[in-house]
Amino acid sequence: MDGLLQMHTEHEARGVPVEVEAGWLHHRFAQIHPFADGNGRVARAIASLLFIKAEWFPLVVKRDDRTRYIEALEKADADDLWPLVAMIVEAQRNALFQATEAAYDKPTASTHDAIAAARDRLMLRGRLPLKEWLAAKQTAADLGAILFT
Questions:
Q1: Which CATH number goes with the domain that contains 81?
Q2: For 90-125, how does the pLDDT look when each residue is reduced to its tens digit (9 = 90+)?
């Protein structure tokens, strides 16, 4: 794990694009497999932290994409990281489209307004209760303070 963190630090210093680094770090962590259970969830959380730090969306792999996700990880095992990176980029694109659709109904003057519009749209659909939104926002802030300062 120490070597993985050192390599990640070197990649950041060299300016490796976040989507490539997230795919690489996700795959390498999963290969190390440090836990008896939950390695995939932790790997996706690590990738999400990279995206959050870069002000992108967290990584979400939907159940419908599970087969493609496993195949992309297997290709990464065979030294072909690009299918995993492509899947990650597609997930980011989909998240952006969802956020754009959510914010479309309200004209916005700032990023804060756009985020609030997306939140409001999701809450109206019953997908995100305000209590969960606030808890998630606080957790993201706490993690950011711990990891990126």
A1: 1.10.3290.10
A2: 998 888 777 766 555 566 667 677 777 767 766 665
